[in-house]
Amino acid sequence: MPLSPEEIYKKVVEQVGPDGRLPMPPVAEWDTFPWEQVGDTWLPKVVQPPLEEEPPRHGEGDRRASGTASRARRTRSGATTAGW
């Protein structure tokens, strides 16, 4: 049985206290985070030059796409996905 909104709220308050603030994930450490801390302030990250050659993406060149399968899959209706 899923928890009610009231039960979820109660669990959050039990974990983080009455102010209800969840801990901040370490987004500043993520490569895609567009800001960096410089001293006591946050500034946009410096734009990096383009790569000489970008690594191939899944499904490009001789790399197989991650969603493809070597054999046909059967759907709920019984149809196969072999022709897709």
Structure description:
The chain has 84 residues and is largely without helices or strands. Helix content is 14%, strand content 10%. The longest helix is centred in the first third of the chain and has 12 residues, at 5-16. The protein starts with a helix and ends in a 40-residue tail after the last strand. The relative contact order is 0.06.
Rounded to an integer, what's the Rg over CA atoms?
24 Å
Proportion of β residues? 5-15%
Helix/strand-derived category reads little secondary structure
Q: How much is the average pLDDT?
A: 77
The string of secondary-structure elements, in order, is: HEE
Helix coverage percent: 10-25%
Strand order of the largest sheet: 1-2
Beta strand count: 2
Number of helices, counting only DSSP H or I runs of 4 residues or more: 1
Q: Based on CA inertia axes, which overall geometry fits? A: flat
**What's the main sheet like?**
2 strands, antiparallel
Task: Give the distance, in angstroms, between the N- and C-terminal Cα atoms.
Answer: 38 Å
Q: Uncertain runs with pLDDT below 50, 5 residues or more?
A: none
Strand-helix topology:
Blueprint: H1 5-16, E1 35-38, E2 41-44
Antiparallel strand pairs: 1-2
